[in-house]
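call fold(seq) -> tokens
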Amino acid sequence: MVGVADFNRDGHRDYLLFNSSNHQTAIWYLSGRSQIGGAFGPTIPSGWSLVATADFNSDGRPDYLLYNPASRQTAIWYLNNNVYVSAAYGPTLSVGWSLVEP
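ret:
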């Protein structure tokens, strides 16, 4: 599990899941502690990891924060629920810094 956010805007937090083997993302829609549905999100490119979720563009919808440990590059994928809309590169982290544990 990568994070928790309200992807379908129903007022309940949902789980964001990432399968590091095949780079598939999934969202489990919750109502309280009960799973009420799910959807696959976009697949993350090889060499990148999904490290967090937050509303980066202030549109009221959670987005993905990606990190490439080889290049230390960050990227934001803007989403509409579980659908990829667009992307932007974030800052490249300085040597010695990381968004994930080694």
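The chain has no helices and eight strands.
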